[in-house]
Amino acid sequence: MLVTGSGLSRGRIAYGALAMGAGICLMHYGGMWAMRMEPGIGYDPLWFAISVLIAVSASAAALFDQGVPESLAILVAGRASE
Q: Where do the structural domains in the chain lie, given as residue ranges?
């Protein structure tokens, strides 16, 4: 269990973010590959790399959010609403 336990280490967050980000990319690009369209779909390597970076970063943020102690999360959320 990645998110359970006494806390998340940086290594666990990094590993989890890479695994989740890879899953997101595989589902997205697998679905895009399965679609048959005219004209065909082309991929720009730069935009592909940016989308992978976004998927991994969003996954890391979600895992970090799950590992933050509740008191800190309330403090951050309270300041954000001011």
A: 10-80
The token duo for 22 is 């890879």
**Cα atoms in the 13 Å half-sphere on the side-chain side of 43:** 11
pLDDT (0 to 100) of residue 70? 56
Q: Using CB atoms within 10 A of its CB, is residue 44 exposed (0-12), middle (13-18) or buried (19+)?
A: exposed
**Alpha-carbon span 11 to 62, nearest angstrom:** 15
What pTM was estimated for this model as a whole?
0.70
Residue 1 has pLDDT above 50, yes or no: no
Length, in residues, of the chain: 82
Measure Cα distances from 71 to 10, 11, 31, 33, 67 in Å.
20, 23, 40, 44, 12
- Work out the number of other CB atoms within 10 angstroms of the CB of residue 3: 13
